[in-house]
């Protein structure tokens, strides 16, 4: 077991105190921490790192999102390719702008209420049981309605994205390799998402429909040629 601790941070040369500078003061100065692909399975209390803004923890073995309540200055969080099954304990991260959770075991997009500054959410390729699809909690969608601009939901067996209509400021939707089938459902969505200028649907059954691109571009006033 490898836990992300203050001692581990110190051993990896994140602490470079100047003469007569205390460890506590040095910890407060840390803004970026890189611990990707280190077999880390848990995050311990890092509360002295009060100015942490970017945390890289992808390609590890983390199963629970814990002990990040202190990180109120965090803007970027990279947790892709871990063992996380639930989005939780993030509501105090009011400055979070980009969240990367692809390649985990998450079945429901939830627990993001209050993150009104979140601009990018990447939840592609969840390792779900056969036949299951990624779902969206309406409370989380409502909370992200005005902030979210980029959403990546690729490869999650999704067959309906009409619930995303509430994301009024969404400008990029990446939904590659899902099960989207009906052009009418997408026409409905595009009538609502007035700021969407890029949508990638490659690998969906709907792409085999005659003139589906023409129909969607005709509906959308913003999409133009950025439909894939």
UniProtKB/TrEMBL annotation:
InterPro entries (UniProt xref): Leu-rich_rpt, Leu-rich_rpt_4, LRR_dom_sf, SDS22/Internalin_LRR
Keyword annotations: Cytoplasm, Cytoskeleton, Leucine-rich repeat, Repeat
Record's keyword annotation contains Cytoplasm: yes
Pfam entry (one): LRR_4
GO cellular component terms listed in the entry, alphabetical order: centrosome
Domain of life of the source: Eukaryota
UniProt key word Cytoplasm: yes
Protein's cellular compartments: Cytoplasm, Cytoskeleton, Microtubule organizing center, Centrosome
Main location: cytoplasm
Subunit structure: Interacts with PPP1CC isoform gamma-2; the interaction is direct. Interacts with actin, dynein, KIF5B, KIFC1 and tubulin. Associates with microtubules.
Function: Regulates phosphatase activity of protein phosphatase 1 (PP1) complexes in the testis.
Record's protein name: Protein phosphatase 1 regulatory subunit 42
């Amino acid at each position: 077991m490898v836990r992300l601790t203050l001692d581990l941070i110190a051993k990896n040369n994140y602490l470079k105190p100047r003469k007569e500078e205390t460890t506590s003061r040095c910890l407060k100065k840390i803004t970026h921490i890189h611990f990707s692909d280190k077999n880390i399975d848990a995050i311990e209390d890092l509360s002295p790192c009060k100015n942490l803004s970017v945390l890289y923890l992808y390609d590890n073995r983390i199963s629970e999102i814990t002990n990040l309540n202190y990180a109120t200055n965090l803007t970027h969080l990279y947790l892709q390719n871990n063992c996380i099954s639930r989005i939780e304990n993030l509501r105090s991260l009011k400055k979070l702008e980009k969240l990367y959770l692809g390649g985990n075991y998450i079945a429901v997009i939830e627990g993001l209420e209050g993150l009104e500054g979140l601009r990018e959410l990447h939840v592609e390729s969840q390792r779900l049981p056969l036949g299951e699809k990624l779902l969206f909690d309406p409370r989380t969608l409502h909370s992200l309605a005005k902030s979210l601009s980029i959403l990546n939901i690729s490869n999650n067996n999704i067959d309906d994205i009409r619930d995303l209509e509430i994301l009024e400021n969404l400008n990029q939707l990446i939904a590659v390799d899902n099960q989207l089938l009906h052009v009418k459902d997408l026409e409905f969505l595009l009538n609502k998402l007035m700021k969407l200028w890029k949508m990638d649907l490659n690998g969906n059954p709907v792409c085999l429909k005659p003139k589906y691109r023409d129909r969607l571009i005709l509906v959308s006033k913003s999409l133009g040629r950025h439909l894939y």
